Amino acid sequence: MAEDSWYNGYSARERDLKFKELKRRIARGETPPASGPCALCGDPDVPVEYHDEDYGEPYIWEPPALLALCRNCHRNKLHKRFSDNAAWKAFIAHVRRGGYARDLKDKAVKKEADACKRLIEQGKPFSLTPMRPYPREVGKEWFTNLRLDPESLKDPTSRPRP
Ligand SMILES: [Zn+2]
Q1: For residue 69, how far is its CA from the centre of ligand 1 (angstroms)?
Q2: pTM (2 decimals)?
């Protein structure tokens, strides 16, 4: 996890404090180690790690604050959404067709997702071939309305709780 920088209006110090407490809680058995499926792409068969959306006090140790994500979703998608909004939106479309992050290693799958990204950049409609049933309600997922502007990293109003 990247606790060395701002996120959702929380400073590196605030993030580090909660992360250290999380490690203590896991060591004491108060919070289980992260376990799947990935809370973003839904992959049931991939190693996951904790991501936190909310570092406010009192601390919350469950979704939608504390989430178990696969490394690919966590590091390459979620935390990189600020520098490439269209790539993030195309990835959400991929997730909603039942795609896992690891499916993008498949050339044909990736090609279709890349084409989707270009259409999003052009403001055009897009569709992707469904891969698996999607169990969540589109538009109600925790990741639906995340801010994509880099300013949100340090903006106190981007905190989930005031
Ligand atoms: Zn994932």
Answers
A1: 5
A2: 0.94
